[in-house]
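Researcher: Next entry in the queue.
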Amino acid sequence: MVRARERIEQDLAGLEEALAALTLEFRSTYDGYLTALGQAVRQQLILACYHLCTQAVPESFLKLSFDGRQKMQQSVRALAAASEEKLRSLVTTESEEEEEVEEEEEEDEEEE
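Model: Structure for this entry, 112 residues:
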């Protein structure tokens, strides 16, 4: 009976280590995915605006003053950068939330 319990505890410890390793790998992969997605969103937004301004409705874009065109381009770049940053911040926010949950679980275990 004692050996069975020890064996179960060893198995649980091994599973917890494997889970920790998978968690790190998943976070790394997810971080890379969101980074790539952010870059793609930024690029596609800029390309979509370029298409609109040069092919879909170039007359509207050309009616803008030079300063108006520059402001529009700066706004598009700022929006694209903000979108990319928002996606990157998701990883940080989720990591912090997971750490808080883990800390709460550890505190609960210590109280028991």
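Model: The chain is about 95% helix and 0% strand.
Researcher: Noted, moving on.
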